[in-house]
Specification:
126 residues; globular; Glutaredoxin; 29% strand
Amino acid sequence: MKTVTVIFYARDFAGEWKYELEESKLREMFAALNSELSAAGVKFEYQHEPNITLRINGYADLLNSVRLRSLHDGIASLPLAQLIGASVNADLLEDVRKGARRVAFSPESIPPVDGAQLCHNCGCGC
């Protein structure tokens, strides 16, 4: 079974803007993902990484404080912002769900770090 792990770095919010993430809602979301998609051979899990703290100035920084890992696909620590680009609704749970599903079912569609070209691993040599 393929495992997709979502890692939440510790966050240091700058200024007055904050984004509260309720642990209970996080647990519920991952339970729902696993219930819905375990039959497809994917397990989703999450963990907190208190030893790495990122300064958060806005929602884009918040997205970068969330990393995804799928050792099966050779993904060790990919920022959520790189996976999904700009957030449509600035809803972190929605964005995590979108990124986790993409890593699970379409890792070949993730743009490279330099963003120059998207390789779909189709054998075309791009």
